Amino acid sequence: MSRDELAPGPETTTETTDADRFTNARAIRSTALFEDYTELIADLTEEFGEARITDIARRLGVTHPTANKAVLRLKREGLAISRPYRGVFLTEAGAAMAREVKARHRLVVRLLIAVGVPPEAAEMDAEGIEHYVSETTLKAFEAYLGGRD
Amino acid sequence: MSRDELAPGPETTTETTDADRFTNARAIRSTALFEDYTELIADLTEEFGEARITDIARRLGVTHPTANKAVLRLKREGLAISRPYRGVFLTEAGAAMAREVKARHRLVVRLLIAVGVPPEAAEMDAEGIEHYVSETTLKAFEAYLGGRD
DNA sequence: TTGGAAATATAGCATTGGCTACATTTCTGT
DNA sequence: ACAGAAATGTAGCCAATGCTATATTTCCAA
Ligand SMILES: [Mn+2]
Ligand SMILES: [Mn+2]
Ligand SMILES: [Mn+2]
Ligand SMILES: [Mn+2]
């Protein structure tokens, strides 16, 4: 039952292992929350001029202490700023993330709908899928959607 | 700056809120790890006749104590069984999850490739995406891939 | 057969991301 | 102006998921 050096394959090019894929997915998982927060804060700021903890919490479906703690992490990472008892705002880095994430979100929804997924399901599933779509895949989606914009 | 009762909309049908989408994504996040473990244990069992902690850990790119702890959770949830210092095996529930997840994994890869994503990127991204694809979306993927099977 | 290597288990630590309960501050209607 | 309501902040709890270090068990080769 030897399992060493299994199937080395004829590849001379560096090979993508299972571990690479799972490690990639784990790395993304740890940034997905920040992506949702920055995208949401950008939305709220556009709608209301500021993003308040209560509104963030309600839109995400979490309690306000949970939102508050997440915002502390966002601030620590340089993605947001806020003064006590005041609204939350994105830094330039946070705004850049929000723009990037929003574009990805929309493209994923459009792609899903284009291949026949009902809009409701597309919106629902995209909320999770969006975080795992690489640049390469995004480009492919753009090419696929191509003309019919 | 009133934000109460904003845009109630003309819907009579129950509406999907932002919070619903995020709550759904959080629920899925908490099962994604189990899905990867069951799928992997099924693969290893087929390849070697058993799934050993060391092999699980190496394939996932984590340390073996991490894999061991995850297997304890799998056992607690009735998805796997094992005796001390021996291989891990899936219960019927675990095997059912593995089958379902593997089918989803393959369909997602096929769909991505079908819309023009390079196979390498498709495999990489599918590892995360697969967990967030609903039954409805899966059905749409099947319909889209339709004939050219 | 037995000693070292390999595999497995366990202990203990850290962070994340949930929650409830309670404290503090700000806002608002009278 | 001020009292009560609303918003925000903080403390403390928990589970999940990662890690390193160490102990134990099993396997294998001489
Ligand atoms: Mn999302
Ligand atoms: Mn999004
Ligand atoms: Mn996966
Ligand atoms: Mn998979």
What's the arrangement of secondary structure elements?
Two copies of one chain form a homodimer.
Chain A: H1 18-48, H2 53-60, H3 64-76, E1 80-82, E2 88-90, H4 92-114, H5 119-129, H6 135-145
Antiparallel strand pairs in A: 1-2
Helix pairs in contact in A: 1-4, 2-3, 4-5, 4-6
Bound molecules: manganese (II) ion (4 copies).
One manganese (II) ion (MN) binds at residues 36, 39, 105, 127, 130 of chain B.
The first copy, chain A, binds a DNA duplex (30 and 30 nucleotides) through helix 1 and helix 3.
CATH topology title of chain A: Arc Repressor Mutant, subunit A
Roughly what percent helix of chain A? Answer: 55-70%
Strand residue percentage of chain A: under 5%
**Most extensive interface, chain pair and sizes:** A-B, 52 and 52 residues
> Which small molecules are bound?
manganese (II) ion
What does the main sheet of chain A amount to?
2 strands, antiparallel
The assigned CATH architecture of chain A is Orthogonal Bundle
β-strand number of chain A: 2
Oligomer kind: homodimer
Provide a compact summary of the structure.
Chain A is mostly helical and 149 residues long. Helix content of chain A is 65%, strand content 4%.
What would your notes on this structure say?
The structure is a homodimer of 149-residue chains. The first copy, chain A, is mainly α and 149 residues long. Chain A has one domain (11-145): Arc Repressor Mutant, subunit A (Orthogonal Bundle), CATH 1.10.10.10. In chain A, 65% of the residues lie in helices and 4% in strands. The first copy, chain A, is built from six helices and two strands; from the N terminus they run αααββααα. In chain A, strands 1-2 form a two-stranded antiparallel ribbon. The first copy, chain A, is globular, with a radius of gyration of 19 Å. Mean pLDDT of chain A is 92; it is low at 1-11. Chains A and B meet through α1, α2, α5 and α6 of A and α1, α2, α5 and α6 of B. The structure holds manganese (II) ion (4 copies). One manganese (II) ion binds next to α1 of chain A. The structure holds a DNA duplex (30 and 30 nucleotides).
